[in-house]
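Query structure, 439 tokens:
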């Protein structure tokens, strides 16, 4: 029997994955010479929301408060006081009172870590793809992997929607355009570019389509390469997808004026309206929504609180508190919370010490990510940090571990192998789901 290179590599990867995961997924030690029977952790969530705190949210000023510091005295510590929560023994920042009341719907993962410190773009890429940047492979983002594995919930509804600015870090990488995102930056309108401009008649559009078809055919005949065909196929899929999404079913989801004034007010300002729109998108059948929160006009810097940027950091925290608590309670009211995993992520944390202007630098060795809903065993605090939330004391959680946890919560096999052409790529870079979160 002839074994192809791809089959050989696939078998090798599968064997290695099975060996490394057998004890992890069953919670038991493996016995030499005895075949293990892995039992993958599979949750019941149908949707995922990724609330992105761009810039690097300080763990000791949000989900992992410590004793108060003083920038004037150069005393490291939290910038704010802490308050008790619905989870006994777990406190959060004083500006998260609404989330504190319902923290039993959350899990706080306080020991996420990676080795990126001073490069925002690299850290954002790490948190979205779960891997270091490669010169040979463009890895897919977590939203695109979920799109590829689970697809959209409803017909003519995209699997992946980004409310924020587009970037390759959030893209499909080697999975191709089919698993890319639809994006918008303003909740007052739906995604631009899906519907034909009003000044373009049907007849004129038909002529454009005919010209484009001839141009593509000539390009195929002239090049005749597999790569060229792949590029055109991805383009055609994107055009077809846009045509499907231009229908009234999808576009009606963006009509926030259909919501009552009471509901809209409960969510708060622009970020809150993004979260309200997210609830509508989930109800419409979108599988994965990323919502950007880095609204720089509140404090001039977003979550990247160097120097005086920290002075109004509390406004960002308050806005997050209002919108996040409203989203959780609204999803619960709609009986969607158990079906929706909410992830509150950021590219790295901040150090407990203060810079010359009274703000904070960057810190990737230890920071917090909050999870909510998703049918997990909620109300847990995962990991312990030291007295300044600078170092992991116990239960470190790597970025691949975090990704594996998210995938497992959505019923995705964390031992699955993706393919970049013929090259097998494990779905995570050796990540292990946080087993305590699965009932």
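Result returned for the query:
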């Amino acid at each position: 029997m002839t074994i192809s290179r791809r089959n050989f590599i696939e078998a090798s990867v599968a064997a290695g994955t099975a060996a490394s995961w057998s004890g992890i997924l069953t919670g038991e030690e493996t016995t030499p010479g005895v075949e293990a029977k892995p039992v993958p952790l599979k949750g019941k969530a149908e949707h995922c929301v990724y609330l992105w705190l761009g810039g690097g949210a300080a763990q000791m000023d949000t989900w992992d408060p410590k004793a108060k510091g003083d920038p004037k005295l150069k005393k490291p510590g939290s910038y704010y006081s802490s308050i008790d929560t619905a989870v006994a023994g777990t406190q959060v920042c004083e500006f998260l009172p609404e989330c504190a009341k319902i923290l039993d719907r959350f899990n706080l993962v306080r020991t996420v870590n990676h080795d990126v410190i001073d490069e925002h773009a690299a850290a954002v890429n790490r948190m979205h793809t779960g891997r270091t940047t490669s010169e040979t492979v463009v890895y897919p983002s977590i939203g695109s992997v979920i799109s590829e594995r689970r697809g959209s919930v409803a017909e003519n509804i995209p699997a992946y929607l980004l409310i924020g600015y587009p970037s390759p870090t959030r893209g499909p990488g080697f999975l191709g355009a089919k698993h890319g995102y639809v994006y918008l930056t303003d909740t007052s309108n739906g995604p631009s570019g899906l519907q034909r401009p009003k000044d373009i008649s049907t007849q004129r559009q038909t002529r454009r389509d005919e010209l484009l078809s001839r141009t593509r055919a000539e390009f195929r005949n002239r090049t005749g390469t597999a790569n060229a065909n792949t590029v055109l196929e991805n383009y055609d899929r994107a055009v077809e997808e846009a045509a499907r999404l231009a229908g009234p079913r999808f576009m009606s989801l963006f009509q926030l004026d259909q919501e009552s004034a009471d509901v809209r007010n409960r969510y708060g300002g622009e970020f809150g309206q993004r979260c309200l729109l997210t609830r509508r998108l989930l109800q419409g059948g979108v599988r994965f929504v990323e919502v950007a929160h880095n609204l720089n006009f509140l404090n001039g810097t977003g979550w990247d609180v160097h120097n005086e940027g920290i002075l109004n950091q509390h406004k960002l925290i308050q806005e997050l508190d209002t919108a996040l608590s409203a989203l959780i309670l609204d999803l619960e009211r709609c009986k969607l919370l158990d079906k929706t995993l909410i992830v509150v992520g950021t590219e790295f944390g901040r150090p407990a010490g203060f810079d010359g202007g009274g703000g904070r630098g960057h810190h990737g060795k230890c920071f917090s990510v909050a999870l909510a809903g998703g049918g997990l065993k909620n109300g847990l605090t995962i990991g312990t940090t030291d007295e300044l939330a600078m170092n992991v004391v116990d239960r470190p959680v790597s970025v691949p571990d975090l990704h594996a946890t998210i995938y497992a919560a959505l019923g995705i096999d964390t031992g699955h192998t993706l393919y970049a052409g013929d090259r097998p790529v494990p779905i995570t870079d050796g990540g292990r789901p946080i087993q305590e979160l699965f009932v």
